[in-house]
Amino acid sequence: MSIEIAGVGKRFGDFVALDNVSVSIPSGRLTALLGPSGGGKSTLLRIIAGLERADTGRVEIEGVDATDLPPQKRNVGFVFQHYAAFKHMSVRRNVAFGLQIRKRPKAEIAARVDELLHLVHLEQFADRLPAQLSGGQRQRMALARALAVKPTVLLLDEPFGALDAKVRKELRDWLRRLHDEVEVTTVFVTHDQEEALEVADEIVVINDGRIEQIGSPDDLYDRPANDFVMRFLGPVTQLGDHLVRPHDLQISTTPTGPDDVTGTVTRITRIGFEIRIDVTTTTGQPVIVTVTRNEFLALGLDTGATVHLRIAPGSPTTAAAPAAPATAGADHDLAASSI
């Protein structure tokens, strides 16, 4: 394992940021720390970097106990959300900075900077100032600067959070390709479910200072450990006592079996390639179903129609908490707005 976190705890006054956290981060992989704001993910990243000191526990990087090592001796590269560029320096000098303070030979610095500018597609902007770059270009410059010193670990704290949706999508595709080329152990913090599911090899879900689940994107989405993970990693709705993905519900105009739940269509909304169907069951429970446009046209539904619902065989479900019926729709909207 590249990074071993064992029993790490951190308090800020009375606030418990991390509560006895233990996790192994594999070498050479791209791992996402995913969770809500204030959940502890950025604190954990900063402890790995040495920018925060844990109150308890141990941090090991590539077999070396780094718990008491200062940041400059951990051989990690760190990229912040807001670039942290040297505004008076050119792109080339920004990328070269870490090598210069390590007093590397000038020829070595020039060759490494040229290599990285080519890697991040900024060679034509080498002599510009950061203010003359777009947000996406500045973030690529920050990544090149972090990689310049050939770190053992690359740490990214919400690297695309300050960018608009289109640029964010382009950059995360680029980050995945870059990681595959460079092959450095990478850990990035995000609260964006789609970003983690699309980019990461492994996801660590953190909430209230504790780890809820660790696994591959498929593991977490298809086999959530609990109610929180189910809700956080995508849209959910509730049918009976079960939380379920809206696209894992089957809907028909005729009953198919004794487990069907009958309801009435109360609203139909098109959301891009999906159709969202709001149904109220005979017991008064609100349920959300999503289908493709072709599926919807085949059903021939309209508001007021009687429908029959069932959970598709093999679909992931979790037992719903008592408060779930009041928040199912809100959770769906939150997830939809995040992806």
TrEMBL record:
Pfam families tied to this protein: ABC_tran, TOBE_3
Biased composition (Low complexity): 316-329
Keyword Transport on entry: yes
UniProt entry tagged with the keyword Translocase: yes
Annotated keywords: ATP-binding, Cell membrane, Membrane, Nucleotide-binding, Sulfate transport, Translocase, Transport
GO MF annotation: an example: ABC-type sulfate transporter activity
E.C. designation(s): 7.6.2.9
Name under which the protein is recorded: ABC-type quaternary amine transporter
Annotated segments matching region Disordered: 316-339
Domain of life assignment: Bacteria
Biased composition (Basic and acidic residues): 330-339
Organism: Dactylosporangium aurantiacum
Entries under Gene3D superfamilies matching the protein: 2.40.50.100, P-loop containing nucleotide triphosphate hydrolases
Domain ABC transporter: 3-233
GO cellular component labels: ATP-binding cassette (ABC) transporter complex
